[in-house]
Amino acid sequence: MLVLKNTSVNRKASLAFILITFFFLILNGCTSGLKPGIYYADDGAYSKMEIKGNRIILTTIFIPIEQSFKYKVEGNDLYLLMGVYDMVFKIVNEDIIDGGIYGTFYHESYIQKIKNNPNIYKVVTDKLNVREGPGTDYKVIHQLTKDTYVFIIENMGEWSKIKFDGEKTGYVSSSYLSSDK
Question: What is the domain range of residue 46?
Fold first, then answer.
């Protein structure tokens, strides 16, 4: 059995260790649940999102200005705290953040993976219908915007079965996809 005689020293050391660890995590952005670094948008109002500590810096497409916001993460929801209202994004995984009308943001490391993967294609039309099956008779289940990346599961000539937005699957016309990244 171990007996500690000077517990005040041990408590102080433990508290110091906890505080140092906590501040290290904050400075490195590790408490957020987001991967630090730059996320680039494929389409929408913003061109990039940078995670810096406890702030997110958004750069707009229209005017080259940066906006800095505090944020919080609850589950898969990312809230940019703007004062009057909050912008809400969905964290698809550590590499993809779905900003809805603000665009889909891809982490810089993910973009490098895309460039090296021959099954990743890019949407080259403004709006591309994703269907339940390979043909225009099938129901539209989603729409993809220009410059969105998709994973080709199977190329069937005029139609391709794709994976998009994480794990969703559907069919698109192959003529609106490009392997140029």
Answer: 37-114
Residue 73 CB: number of other CB atoms within 10 A?
14
| H or E segment and range at residue 66 | strand 66-74
Q: Please indicate, yes or no, if residue 75 is contained in any of the structural domains.
A: yes
pTM comes to 0.54
| 175 CA to centre of own chain | 27
What residues contact 62, with CB distance under 8 A and at least 6 apart?
A: 45
Q: Is residue 137 domain-resident? A: yes
Tokens matching residue 69: 């916001």
The domain boundary residue, chosen from 78, 99, 114:
114
136: left (phi over 0), alpha (psi -120 to 50) or beta: alpha
Which residue, among 98, 113, 101, 122, has the nearest Cα to 181 in the 3D structure?
122
> Over the stretch 93-103, which tens digit does the pLDDT of each residue have?
888 898 887 88
pLDDT tens, residue by residue, 10-37: 444 444 434 343 333 334 333 446 888 8
- Quick one: which of 109, 119, 169 has its CA closest to 144? 169
How many domains does the structure of the chain reveal? 2
Tokens 């906590």 correspond to 22
